[in-house]
Amino acid sequence: VEVQALTSQSVYGLPRRSANGFDQGRLQLLVAVLQKRAGLNLAEQDVYTNAVGGLKIAEPAADLAVSTAIASSLKDKLIDPRTVVIGEVGLSGEVRSVSQLDRRLLEASRLGFSRAIVPASIGRRTKSMPGELDVIRVGTLSEAIREAVG
Question: What mean pLDDT comes out for the span 118-130?
């Protein structure tokens, strides 16, 4: 699922948080974690997120993708379109493992992705991936943002 995000300077006193295809409460939580744990200044930014194709994302495995997409928009730096980002984000900014990661990475490789940013907590549990999938393990949201957008 492709996740998009847009941040823009708020013209109102209270910034908007809009989630299309993603839980509104989860978006607010991720924005708070991005501010507090990753040091991103979103206090005066409207934040819009979108799951492409009208899909509904209900699992926390998309947290890291949504968070890095927001950081990408705020920093005005694109994430390489051949990069897949998978992981749950905890309240302390840690990146948590998700179920069926091997299957997800295998499918990403089949779809032509060349780079994956995943939770460090998986250790060496992931099997070797076919092709040239470069698996980058991160422990925190800040690390993931650095890997995704520099």
Answer: 70
The rounded distance, in Å, linking the Cα atoms of 66 and 72 is 10
The DSSP code for 123 is T
Residue 116 token pair: 């994956």
CA–CA dist 122, 91 (Å, integer): 19
Whether the full predicted model's pTM is greater than 0.85, yes or no, is yes
Tell me if 89 sits within 8 A of 33, measured CB to CB. Answer: yes
- C-beta atoms surrounding 57 within 10 Å: 19
Domain of 11, in residue numbers? 3-149
Contacting residues for 33 by C-beta, under 8 A, at least 6 apart: 67, 89, 90, 91, 93, 141
Instruction: Give CA–CA dist 17/6, Å, rounded.
Output: 10
Q: How far apart are CA 124 and CA 113, in angstroms?
A: 20
Separation between Cα atoms, residue 25 and residue 10, nearest integer Å: 19
- Taking alpha carbons only, the member of 29, 32, 82 closest to residue 60 is 29
pLDDT of residue 150: 87
The CATH number that applies at residue 113 is 3.30.230.10
Indicate the number of domains in the chain: 1
